[in-house]
């Protein structure tokens, strides 16, 4: 088990280094000069050259890459081309906002998917199960931003129950924080909940057909009792896989939702950096998102080992 986890850790590190090379190379080949954008169209060549020298962008690409990635290793993301402010604190501050949104959306998705997915599987030959499956299919087809606009129209414009956007830190005003988080979290979580419902249904149906569950029912357990005692653990393995993919999807989907609800998260920072051609800022944000996705996949690989005894006992 330990050797398997160690191997997964090495794969994680190699993937992270490879991703950093790809991100740096992609930003390096983009057309345009960030220094000239930062100084304006009327900047003199001497001023542009001084800014290149100040940020080290006049050095060879390998040297620039090493300086950038070695800085990332100690939390130094460099300074913004546009504002001259350190990028690391900006990313940390915005990432906390996005983390609240993503985790809340995942809670919403789980609260929707687990009961509906199990119910749809247990009633798959009944009209209610068919209706639940159809409802989840409709949810999959609706984009997050449209759900957000509909919720704003209903709860903010017509009913005036909740604010339509903005952000309040939880330490300053917990009630205001919860009010402003609710609509974007539901907007982001509803669609993911619909997707996860279908995977939960499929996983439960596969488990219900297994011999060990038939044996448990033959010994006198009712279907829901047999499922709770013996089936959910086995059904959890494919669901955990989808859950990891959805966390990555939520990170990407948060970019749009943050714009819809005017939330100062990591996605808004990324879009602002792209608009200002602040490539060093964009590199840092993209690298944090890549790290988050790779870390999620690594945690899922470890959870596989914990959940499935067949993986623990298999030869490394």
UniProtKB/TrEMBL annotation:
<keyword id="KW-1003">Cell membrane</keyword>
<dbReference type="Pfam" id="PF00528">
    <property type="entry name" value="BPD_transp_1"/>
</dbReference>
<keyword id="KW-0812">Transmembrane</keyword>
<feature type="transmembrane region" description="Helical">
    <location>
        <begin position="134"/>
        <end position="161"/>
    </location>
</feature>
<dbReference type="Pfam" id="PF19300">
    <property type="entry name" value="BPD_transp_1_N"/>
</dbReference>
<dbReference type="InterPro" id="IPR000515">
    <property type="entry name" value="MetI-like"/>
</dbReference>
<keyword id="KW-1133">Transmembrane helix</keyword>
<feature type="transmembrane region" description="Helical">
    <location>
        <begin position="181"/>
        <end position="200"/>
    </location>
</feature>
<feature type="transmembrane region" description="Helical">
    <location>
        <begin position="235"/>
        <end position="261"/>
    </location>
</feature>
<feature type="transmembrane region" description="Helical">
    <location>
        <begin position="9"/>
        <end position="30"/>
    </location>
</feature>
<feature type="transmembrane region" description="Helical">
    <location>
        <begin position="281"/>
        <end position="307"/>
    </location>
</feature>
<dbReference type="GO" id="GO:0005886">
    <property type="term" value="C:plasma membrane"/>
</dbReference>
<keyword id="KW-0472">Membrane</keyword>
<feature type="domain" description="ABC transmembrane type-1">
    <location>
        <begin position="95"/>
        <end position="304"/>
    </location>
</feature>
<feature type="transmembrane region" description="Helical">
    <location>
        <begin position="99"/>
        <end position="122"/>
    </location>
</feature>
<protein>
    <submittedName>
        <fullName>ABC transporter permease</fullName>
    </submittedName>
</protein>
<dbReference type="InterPro" id="IPR045621">
    <property type="entry name" value="BPD_transp_1_N"/>
</dbReference>
<keyword id="KW-0813">Transport</keyword>
<dbReference type="InterPro" id="IPR035906">
    <property type="entry name" value="MetI-like_sf"/>
</dbReference>
<dbReference type="GO" id="GO:0071916">
    <property type="term" value="F:dipeptide transmembrane transporter activity"/>
</dbReference>
<comment type="similarity">
    <text>Belongs to the binding-protein-dependent transport system permease family.</text>
</comment>
């Amino acid at each position: 088990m330990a050797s398997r986890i160690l191997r997964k850790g090495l794969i994680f590190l190699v993937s992270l280094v490879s991703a950093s090379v790809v991100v740096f190379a992609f930003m390096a080949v983009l057309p345009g000069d960030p220094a000239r954008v930062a100084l304006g169209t009327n900047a003199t060549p001497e001023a542009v050259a001084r800014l290149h020298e100040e940020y080290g962008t006049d050095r060879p690409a390998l040297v620039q890459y090493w300086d950038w990635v070695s800085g990332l290793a100690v939390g130094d993301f460099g300074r913004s081309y546009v504002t001259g402010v350190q990028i690391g604190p900006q990313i940390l501050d915005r990432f906390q906002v996005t983390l609240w949104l993503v985790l809340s959306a995942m809670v919403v998705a789980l609260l929707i998917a687990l009961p509906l997915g199990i119910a749809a599987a247990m009633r798959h030959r009944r009209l209610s199960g068919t209706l639940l499956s159809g409802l989840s299919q409709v949810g999959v087809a609706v984009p997050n931003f449209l759900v957000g606009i509909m919720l704003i129209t209903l709860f903010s414009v017509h009913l005036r129950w909740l604010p339509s956007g903005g952000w309040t830190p939880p330490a300053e005003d917990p009630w205001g924080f919860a009010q402003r988080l609710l609509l974007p979290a539901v907007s982001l979580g509803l669609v993911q909940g619909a997707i996860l419902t279908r995977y939960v249904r499929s996983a439960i149906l596969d488990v219900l057909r297994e011999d060990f569950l038939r044996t448990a029912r033959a010994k006198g357990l009712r279907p829901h009792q047999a499922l709770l005692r013996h089936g959910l653990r086995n059904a959890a393995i494919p669901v955990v896989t989808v859950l990891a993919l959805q966390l990555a999807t939520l990170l990407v989907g948060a970019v749009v939702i943050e714009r819809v609800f005017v939330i100062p998260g990591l996605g808004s920072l990324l879009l602002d950096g792209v608009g200002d051609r602040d490539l060093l800022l964009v590199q840092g944000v993209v690298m944090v998102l890549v790290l988050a996705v790779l870390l999620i996949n690594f945690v899922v690989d470890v959870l596989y080992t914990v959940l499935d005894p067949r993986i623990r006992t298999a030869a490394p």
